[in-house]
Amino acid sequence: MVIRSKLLPPQPHRGIFRRERLHTLLEGTIGAPLTLIHAGTGFGKTTALLELSTFYRKTFWYQITEPDRDPMLFLAHLISTCSPGNTALLERLESGGHTAAQSVLTSLLNQLTLDLEEDALLVLDDYHLVSDVTDINRWFEQLVENRPPRLHIAIACRKIPETPAFIRWRVKASLLVINQADLSFTVEEIGHLFADQYQFPITPEQAESIFSYTDGWIIALQMIWQRLQTSHSRILERILAELPSSDIFTFLAQEVLHRQPTEVQEFLLSSSVLRQLDANACNALLGIGNSTAILQSLVEKGLFTFSVDEQTYRYQRLFQDFLLDQEKNDSQKTLSLHRKATVLIVKLC
User: Fold this and answer.
1) Domain end (from 246, 263, 290)
2) Could you tell me where the DSSP H helices lie in 19-133?
3) CB neighbours (10 Å) of residue 69?
4) 94 — phi, psi (to 5°)?
5) Which helix (H) or strand (E) holds 191?
6) Residues 194 and 51 reside in one and the same domain
7) Shared-domain flag, residues 120 and 205
8) Which domain holds residue 39?
9) For residue 312, which phi and psi values (nearest 5 degrees)?
């Protein structure tokens, strides 16, 4: 049942750029019972987990995938990473099935409590893939609540799990969060990245321009550099102008938009005609009544949506350009949405 390759940490990229700000934030989580790295796709969650693991002499790693939504598969992999070679627990799980799962997890925790002689880190990467599975949530809560004193847990998620346990852990300061804003590059870090890592110095104004377009999204910064490397002119402004037509749109389509429910896809595509979003405008534009909940959910899921204030939101500029580009396939619908948006803006003014 166990795929061993999922229990190995990925090899770090040779070109990882160390940022002191993020390094300090990660260092501040040392010893915390639970660390949550929360961000959307392409913001470097796994890289942050790898850096966090360098603070510990021993790391247990589990790269969660879609099939692990099966609770038995999840628990089998958890046992295999925390106690490699422990065939007795795996045999008990296989023979007893779901009825044996609770006692098997208890035995694993007891064994770790006795065996761990130094601080260790348990990494669960892409936990969002299983965060809505009831049994896995219950076992994870038991794991956190009864963890051995020397075991610290770090998970990476695209959204914060909506369970009472996570709320309780935050209130009790048992949970420390590294969020998307923490992982995003600042204007200053963008300047250092291009000068020190890419050997392509840019002006503060150019760094500001890149930031305004990408909001410090790591994968977009990498794609800008890739374009510069293959460009004959190596003119940054031209690269930025060409960015919407690059492979980044394919990435967004495959990894973000098409993975959303139909209702969310329709909301994203239709509301993209608005530069700033608020619930009333979105409700009027789409003829719905639940825009507040959808907008808050987009922010929580890290879907390139940012809060301007308590009532106003905006899409990341690259993401908005992508959404607008998708709408070009239906010119009549796009024209109708722009007309509605214009009327709404006039009314608001």
Assistant:
1) 246
2) 20-27, 45-53, 71-82, 87-96, 98-115
3) 16
4) -70, -40
5) helix 187-192
6) no
7) no
8) 4-183
9) -120, 140
CA-based nearest residue to 204, from 224, 189, 219: 189
- Residue 14 Rama label (left phi>0; alpha psi -120 to 50; beta): alpha
Residue 210 and residue 103 in one domain: no
DSSP code per residue over 246-294? STHHHHHHHHTGGGS-HHHHHHHHHHTT-SSEEHHHHHHHHT-S-HHHH
Residues 154 and 210 in one domain: no
Exposure of 3 in the CB half-sphere (CA atoms within 13 A): 11
- Do 177 and 73 reside in the same domain of the chain? yes
Q: What is the pLDDT of residues 185-244, one digit of tens each?
A: 999 999 999 999 988 999 999 999 999 888 999 988 988 888 888 777 778 888 777 766
| Digit-coded pLDDT (tens) for 127-150 | 999 999 999 999 999 999 999 999
Residue of 86, 114, 131, 53 lying closest to 76 (CA atoms): 86
d(CA 109, CA 266): 45
DSSP letter assigned to residue 186: P
**Which residue in 182, 129, 158, 166 sits closest to 302, CA to CA?**
158
In this structure, what CATH number is given to the domain that contains residue 344? 1.10.10.10
